[in-house]
From TrEMBL:
It comes from the Bacteria. InterPro entries: DUF112_TM. The chain crosses the membrane at residues 20-39, 51-74, 110-132, 138-159, 166-184, 204-223, 257-278, 320-341, 353-376, 388-418, 430-447, 467-485. Residues 494-524 are annotated as: Disordered. It comes from Nocardiopsis terrae. Keywords: Membrane, Transmembrane, Transmembrane helix. Residues 20-437 form the DUF112 domain. This is Tricarboxylic transport membrane protein.
Length: 524
């Protein structure tokens, strides 16, 4: 009853006219930022810290939190309509969202994304409210060995999305990890794989790779298909039937829980949560072989997970002062600037802030749903844009987003290079999902592996001797077994090699819009 009283007190704070206005400003800004590649939630929050500096701390953090989960919520729009993920956490949404859009079901895809995001955010808020202290103490038990094992699990789960061709999935993942290692080694200051180009000293930005492999590659596919016509269909009904809602309900609920628990672990975040949930649903769904071809469950699962994870990342931030992601690291800086020190005593020292933020998240989820559902017809009209107009628009979209990062012409060259890589991958049946996640997780895997080996004195057995780490690695191995079994069966029947992947690419990728042969190339 005490918790209920505190939550009601939080609503009394969040529902004041002033804080309602800041919730609205935050989620609106976040939604727009999420739609536009180049301005992620981290840069947006960093830019708004000077604005928040003169505000009352509770109102300021309510607004900044709104920017964060609003950006995660809004990032699905460009992923679904243009195959141009603006936020890393919505890459997995494009795997099925974009093929749905190409088949005239953009309205349904956006509606599913909005509803799943709302459910995920709501479940995340309930989890944050109910079990934050206990979960935070569990998260502290994760050391470098456990984090390395978690990253390996995340990567192998997505490698298995490569369909029947496990080798191509592994190659794609290795290329992603290699790309993540480019730049100056943070521990030894050794310059790695830069070819003496100073522009690569700081590494390769995620946005450049994501927009190149997804959006620019899609432009090249469109140009390659010119004259074939009929790729895009008109937008049909936006309404979801009771049967459709029933189909997406179980994956939405499962992914919300998985996403929240993943978000609680510092370093995992919305991106890992979305990929893990997508992989889990593909494995357990009866129609898992249709993932990547426009399956609504493939939209619902990552959208529910990434929103739940965004809320979950506030658990270590608020109760331990440990940022769970890059964005919450910026929020931690904002809290310190505002004179608030998050940690175990925050609930006692600043109950108004903690419960006000918790309540504001629920209010923000409702505001996002109310704002976005009526706008779906407007968003969906993007698909009616003639190809002659849409192709240059997507290119401009990519160029502005990448150039805005560092105002570097070299980055535009990298964008073009990764666009060509993405196009060649799709023509040859290589899935893009493992490459993207390899890029995201590569640095984290290396850092935690090194820390674990330093602590153990170079003993590799430490990864198997720690119970949680050993369990996660065992699950990672098991996740590869189905693909291995399929590969062995294919070898016995003489069906591996070009036939499978080619079928995946030529029969599915091109007429389907291809962009998601990238995702799972599940057609192969």
């Amino acid at each position: 009853m005490g918790m209920l009283d505190q939550l009601l007190h939080g609503f009394s704070i969040a529902l004041t006219p002033q804080n309602l206005l800041f919730v609205l400003i935050g989620v609106l800004a976040g939604t727009v930022i999420g739609i536009l590649p180049g301005l992620g939630p981290m840069s947006a929050i960093a830019l708004m810290i000077p604005i928040a500096y003169g505000m009352e701390p509770t109102s300021a953090i309510i607004m900044l939190a709104g920017v964060y989960y609003g950006a995660i919520f809004g990032g699905s729009t460009s992923s679904i309509l243009l195959n141009a993920p603006g936020v890393a956490g919505t890459v997995a949404t494009s795997f099925d969202g974009y093929p749905m859009a190409l088949r005239g079901r953009a309205g349904k895809a956006l509606a599913i994304a909005a509803i799943s995001s709302f459910v995920g955010g709501t479940i995340g808020v309930v989890g944050l409210m109910a079990i934050a202290p206990g979960l935070a103490s569990f998260a502290v038990s994760f050391g470098p060995t456990e984090y390395f094992a978690l990253m390996v699990l995340g990567l192998t789960a997505v490698v298995s999305l490569g369909g029947n061709n496990l080798v191509k999935g592994l190659i794609s993942a290795v290329v992603g990890v290699m790309t993540a290692l480019v730049g100056i080694d943070s521990q030894t200051a050794i310059v790695r794989y830069t070819f003496d180009l100073p522009e690569l000293y700081e590494g390769v930005e995620f946005l450049i790779v994501a927009l190149g492999v997804f959006a620019l590659a899609e432009v090249l596919v469109m140009l390659n298909r010119r004259g074939q016509g009929g790729a895009r269909k008109g937008v049909t009904s936006l309404r979801l039937s009771g049967r459709e809602l029933g189909r997406i309900a179980p994956p939405t609920l499962r992914s919300s829980v998985l996403g929240f628990f993943t978000g609680v672990l510092p370093g995992a975040g919305a991106t890992v949560a979305s990929f893990l949930s997508y992989s889990m649903e593909k494995k357990i769904a009866r129609d898992g072989d249709t993932f990547g071809q426009g399956n609504p469950k493939g939209v619902a699962a990552p959208e529910a997970a990434n929103n739940a994870a965004a809320v979950g990342s506030f658990v270590p931030l608020m109760t331990l002062g440990v940022p769970g992601s890059g964005t919450t690291a910026i929020l931690l800086g904002a809290l310190l600037v505002l004179g608030v020190t998050p940690g175990p005593t925050m609930l006692a020292d600043n109950p108004d802030m903690f419960w006000g933020v918790v309540a504001s998240m629920y209010v923000g989820s409702v505001v996002l749903l109310v704002l976005n559902l009526p706008l779906i017809p407007v968003f969906a009209k993007v698909l009616n844009t003639p190809r002659a107009v849409l192709v240059p628009l997507v290119v401009v979209f990519c160029v502005v987003g990448v150039y805005g990062l560092s105002f570097s012409v070299f980055d535009l060259g990298l964008l073009a290079a990764f666009g060509a890589v993405g196009f060649l991958m799709r023509r040859n049946g290589f899935p893009a999902a493992p490459l993207i996640l390899g890029l995201i997780l590569g640095g984290l895997m290396e850092t935690n592996m090194r820390r674990a080996l330093q602590i153990s004195g170079g003993d590799w057995g430490v990864f198997a001797s720690e119970p949680i780490s050993a369990g996660l690695l065992a699950v990672a191995l098991l996740s590869l077994l189905p693909a291995l079994v399929r590969a062995v069966r294919g070898l016995r029947r003489g069906r591996v090699g070009p036939s499978s992947p080619e079928a995946a690419t030529d029969a599915g990728a091109v007429p389907d819009g291809g962009s998601e042969d990238q995702a799972p190339t599940p057609r192969g």
